Amino acid sequence: MCSHEGNPLVPQVARVTKIITETPDVKTFHVTTDQGKPFDVMPGQLAMVSLLPVGEAMFSVTWQEEDHLEFAIKKVGLLTDALHEIEVGQEIGIRGPYGNGFPVEACKGKDIVFIGGGIGLAPLRSMINYCIEHREDYGKLQVIYGARSPEDLVFKDDLFKNWPAVKDMEVYVTVDRGDERWKGNVGFVPDYLDQIQPAPQGRIAVTCGPPIMIKFVLKALERMGYKDDQVITTLEMRMKCGIGKCGRCNIGSCFICLDGPVFTLAELKKLPDEY
């Protein structure tokens, strides 16, 4: 029998212990094994999740507790559609962790603004919760997050209850279009960022979301005076093996699964034009 120990290509058998419906097309899965948490991860790292006989894909680890890992998964295709149909107790495969994760040491002592859109809040949540757990190591925390509509907002307990209660932490939520019950801001994330104007002095900006949102967020941050090494983002593209062997996610000599998925804007600007 194969053992996962020492072999990053062999998955462990894991079990889903809890499923949270976040939005009509996003669910959060709590995953454990008979030995407890499958493995330790750093914020921003990834793991391969497989469901027989459907397939396997790489997902950000949204958070970890003592006995489980959490994944927020959006329905976008065959595997994710199938995962949305499973129930608590279902066995799945899991292997990892992969990727470099967020530079939590380099961010110590700094204020951090997290800027997310849609399911892009999933990888950011791992670093947000890490900063909260190590609150004394970081300055002021701000979260600027938006989704298409109120029902598309993920992690609502964190956005409206848990995070606003943390000392020196502010949460700003916006939606592209409201409804009769929505009392918050209406507008796109980059415009909301322009209104809030978090100053660049002593601050790191961490962003993840749809490419069009990131494009205009980067322009807004540049107008505010952020330097390229003050801006961090995480990429999720074409990753397959997770160990830099299959060549699905390389940009020049750089592998997203191995050298990323987290990069500073300064690092991204050094990549070939194909990105």
Low-pLDDT residue intervals, each spanning 5 or more residues:
none
**What's the tally of helices?**
7
User: How big a fraction of the residues is strand?
Assistant: 25-35%
Q: Could you spell the SSE succession in H and E letters?
A: EEEEEEHEEHEHEEHEHEEEHEH
Q: Would you count the extended β strands for me?
A: 16
Radius of gyration: 18 Å
**Global mean pLDDT:** 91
Query: Terminal Cα separation, in Å?
Result: 41 Å
Shape: globular
Structural class: alpha/beta
Helix content: 10-25%
Oligomer: single chain
**Strand order, sheet with most strands:** 4-3-7-1-2-6-5
Biggest beta-sheet profile: 7 strands, antiparallel
Task: Describe the overall structure.
The chain is an alpha/beta fold. Strand 8, helix 2 and strand 9 (141-147) form a beta-alpha-beta unit. The strands form 3 sheets. The chain has a 7-stranded antiparallel β-sheet with strand order 4-3-7-1-2-6-5. A 7-stranded mixed β-sheet has the order 11-10-9-8-12-13-16, with helices on both faces. The mean pLDDT is 91. The chain has 7 helices and 16 strands. Helices cover 20% and strands 32% of the residues.
